[in-house]
Specification:
Helix content: 40-55%
Largest sheet: 7 strands, mixed
Radius of gyration: 33 Å
Number of strands: 30
Strand order of the largest sheet: 18-30-29-28-19-26-27
Length: 826
């Protein structure tokens, strides 16, 4: 098995003539090398090294054993990116997308503000063959979709590199490496600025406190030269990110927050240097060093806070273990081989010991244990698993050893699906975010105009003060706070909801859930467990009862509806004979029709069966406990199936919470009026609609929307997919049909209504945090700019205000992570 060292070693590459990955010559100077398969392998560039690390880390190291030749490259100018087009490498982070496109999750290095996000998005979107590109500011994560044949992934990465950024395949390890690198650079710059600030202040204080005539001109000039020398590393190294960002913004025609900051530092430093050379006038070395230090300190704290805010997705991705214990000789032998989880295939048997994490989705074939799924579903109670039980990759076995047959691996697992949904939600840009970014661009332009006007005015009023007043205006403004107000809060909320088992798959879902006026709830599988049981079967004709059960089973064999599954389970338990149905068709929300032994049958709702029976249902056909399904043949009612279901434990609490939040609650059900009325009365729901097929449900929601309501729909079945698509925002139950989840804006993974109530509460709180952030950002700038223009704010105070403003909105958003289980009302 190939293995890679965790730390690189710089070696003399002269003896290592070719790059291990691509085969091209290695430069004569030392390059990074890693221990692979027991040998030090050299790489011609960091790109090849990263690719090789990822291939080996994904358990695909055998690729290097069996390839016929090293990976080639097309063009020397973009050689470092061509390896990313390797299909083996792409298997770990690229997936198929609609309309024949491919989609990759990337992480961008160098993102510092919303202007960086805008620049990357616009650059990528303008490339021919790119279908979509979105970048999340808080997580630095990008989703890029392109059409193969029109453009290659290497071309996209090269375009990103040309504007000064680096893109890598997203994985938690790479994210942590980039964060550590960012953190290390930020700390070094902060240290240099802080050390320079303290030393410069030591030389500035004597000039401040010295009385007139107490310090000679030679001493004063010496202190200025010492201050200049100490400020040079502050401006040349510590403040470099501001100048680099400003130059990149100006080169691409975009005004970001770095432009006024860099301009303020440059003007103040140039004026101070001129004063030092001329030996007259004011110098501002202490102010320059201080506000560089304060700005860098604010950015560092923001970096740490943003890393925490975006940690939920990395947390989910890390749930899948890297290795698994595969049983090669089961059932004859329980000896195991430790293999990479990525190498598992459907049908493999794995042993999961107590305390270990399950590596893939599967079904228990031996053993009985307790499995904790809270990290995935938000369900706090561990669940008992025995032979035949489904288990989810990423959940933890707490008790006895389990033997699990793998059914779904890699991108097909529940965990991978959750990560994809969260990725999509975090990548989508809200209209409010787009508006804030556009406003920030014009805001910076307005600040530059205001600074120019301030300079002109102060040169007329008080020339000695004009420079530092102008610098204060440039530095004190904070468009970044305005741009951060919404995306950071939404990122934190998306991650926190995912931790609780409520996965947001569309970016607008959080804001819309908080604002909805009406919540429409399906009954079966949503308010009830959906685990329906046949409690009684009664014949309605002379046909033998066991024959009726076998006929119903044959028709419902492939059904996904809870009623169909209940009938099949009941028939299996009764040992019903195997009959085969042909030409089976399903009418969602109504029932199933097909042929058995040449005769046409229907099983389903009373209205559906009445059409085929040609007569109204018998008066005896009713239920005292729950739903009723009937079996009919041309012109004849054959049998009734009485089914029972139970309400979920948190159903009443959810209805009370929604009412407290001011939401009108509606019950939509395909069951009989008596059953729907019973559930509505028990839960205190005043608006209930029974006997509704999918078209009727859509019409019901359409009517609510036409009356001005903002509607959320919660459902679980195939028959709920049309009404989910009709809603302003939709939630699918995690245990429901795949089609319903595909149409939904959010998925309640655990299916527990308590988590749904928590989600509504957290969404309300998130919108409140967004409003607070926007209010703070606007109020700060409205107060700070006039104060700075009036000469009431010194440059170091301006730096402190700007850094504090950005940090305030990030820390305010992080309050969402401390939110309790959330019954928040306002």
């Amino acid at each position: 098995m190939l293995r890679a060292a965790t730390e690189p070693l710089t070696v003399d590459a002269g003896a290592l003539r070719a790059c291990f990955h691509c085969g091209l010559p290695v430069a004569p100077r030392g390059r990074s090398a890693r221990l692979i398969d027991g040998e030090w392998r050299s790489f011609c560039c960091p790109g090849c090294e990263a690719i090789a690390q990822t291939i080996v880390g994904q358990g695909l190291g055998e690729y290097y054993r069996f390839r016929e030749a090293p990976t080639g490259r097309r063009a020397q100018g973009e050689a470092r990116f061509d390896g990313y087009d390797d299909p083996v490498f792409q298997a770990s982070f690229v997936r198929n997308a609609p309309a024949g496109t491919r989609e990759a999750a990337l992480i961008l290095d160098g993102i510092r503000c919303s202007a960086c996000v805008w620049l990357n998005e616009q650059t990528i979107r303008k490339l021919p063959g790119v279908a979509a590109a979105t970048v999340n500011y808080a997580s630095r994560r990008a989703l890029v979709r392109w059409t193969p044949g029109e453009i290659a992934l290497s071309d996209i990465l090269a375009a990103i590199a040309r504007i000064g950024y680096q893109a890598f395949p997203y994985d938690p390890q790479r994210r942590d490496v980039i964060h550590r690198s960012e953190r290390r650079r930020a700390l070094w710059r902060l240290f240099v600025a802080g050390f320079g600030m303290m030393q410069v202040m030591m030389y500035a204080v004597p000039a401040y406190i010295a009385g007139e005539g107490t310090m000679s001109a030679d001493v004063a000039q010496l202190l200025r030269w010492a201050s200049l020398l100490l400020t040079l590393p502050v401006v040349g190294y510590a403040a470099q990110p501001f100048f680099t960002g400003a130059w990149r913004d100006l080169r691409t025609g975009r005004l970001g927050m770095d432009v006024p900051v860099a301009l303020g530092i440059a003007i103040a430093f140039a004026a101070s240097v001129w004063g030092t050379l001329a030996g007259t006038g004011e110098v501002y070395y202490d102010s320059i060093a201080m506000f560089v230090f304060l700005l860098l300190g604010g950015r560092y704290l923001e970096l740490e806070a943003r890393h925490r805010a975006a940690g939920a997705l990395a947390h989910l991705a890390r749930l899948a273990p890297a290795f698994a214990q595969r049983l090669s000789g089961f059932p004859g032998s329980l000896s195991t081989d430790r293999v990479a989880a990525a190498s598992l295939r459907p049908g493999d048997m794995v042993l999961v010991k107590p305390g270990e994490t399950i590596a893939a989705d599967g079904r228990v074939v031996r053993g009985r244990g307790v499995v904790a799924e809270a990290i995935l579903t938000g369900e706090s109670e561990p669940r008992t698993k025995e032979a035949g039980s489904l288990v989810i990759g990423g959940s933890v076995n707490l008790a006895e050893p389990l033997v699990v047959r793998v059914e779904r691996v890699g991108s097909d697992t529940v965990l991978a699906g959750i990560v994809r949904l969260v990725e999509r939600a975090m990548a989508e840009r809200q209209p409010l975010v787009e508006l804030a970014d556009r406003c920030a661009h014009w805001f910076v332009l307005a600040v530059l105009v205001a600074a120019a006007a301030t300079a002109i005015a102060w040169f007329q009023l008080d020339p000695p003060r004009a420079l530092w007043v102008t610098v204060s205006v440039l530095v004190v403004t904070c468009p970044c706070a305005l741009s951060l107000a919404t995306p950071v809060a939404l990122t934190v909320a998306t991650g926190e909801l995912a931790r609780r088992g409520f996965v947001v798959s569309r970016g607008h879902a959080i804001e819309t859930l908080a604002r909805v006026t009406d919540v429409v709830l399906d009954k079966t599988g949503t308010l009830t467990h959906g685990d329906m049981r046949v409690v009684a079967v009664a014949p309605l004709a002379s046909e033998p009862l066991d024959t009726c059960i076998a006929l119903a089973r044959a028709l419902e064999q492939a059904s996904e509806h809870p009623v169909g599954r209940a009938i099949v389970r009941y028939a299996d338990g009764q040992g019903a004979s195997q009959r085969v149905a042909t030409s089976v068709s399903n009418r969602p929300g109504a029932g199933v029709e097909g042929f058995v032994d040449g005769r046409r049958y229907r099983v389903g709702t009373l209205n559906f069966c009445s059409e085929r029976a040609g007569a109204p249902p018998p008066a005896t056909l009713e239920s005292s406990t729950g739903s009723v399904a009937a079996l009919v043949r041309d012109g004849e009612w054959l049998a009734q199936f009485e089914l029972g279901d139970t309400l979920k434990r948190d159903a009443e609490g959810l209805i009370r919470l929604l009412s407290t939040l001011g939401k009108r609650v509606h019950l939509l059900s395909g069951d009989t009026p008596a059953v729907a009325a019973r559930v509505a009365t028990t839960l205190g729901i005043t608006n209930a609609c029974a006997g509704a097929d999918p078209d009727a449900k859509r019409a019901y929601v359409r009517e609510l929307k036409s009356a001005g309501a903002l509607v959320a729909v919660v459902g679980d079945g195939v028959n709920d997919a049309p009404v989910l698509a009709q809603a302003d925002v939709s939630v699918a139950m995690g245990q429901g049909a795949d089609l319903a989840q595909a149409k939904a804006d959010a998925v309640l993974v655990s299916g527990e209504l308590g988590a749904l109530g928590d989600a509504f509460g957290l969404c309300v709180r998130t919108t409140r945090i967004v409003r607070e952030n926007l209010g703070w950002a606007i109020a700060y700038n409205l107060l700070a700019i006039p104060a700075a223009a009036a000469g009431l704010v010194t440059p170091w105070m301006a730096g402190l205000g700007m850094a504090g403003s950005s940090l305030a909105v990030v820390l305010n958003a992080l309050r969402l992570r401390r939110a309790g289980p959330g019954r928040e009302t306002g």
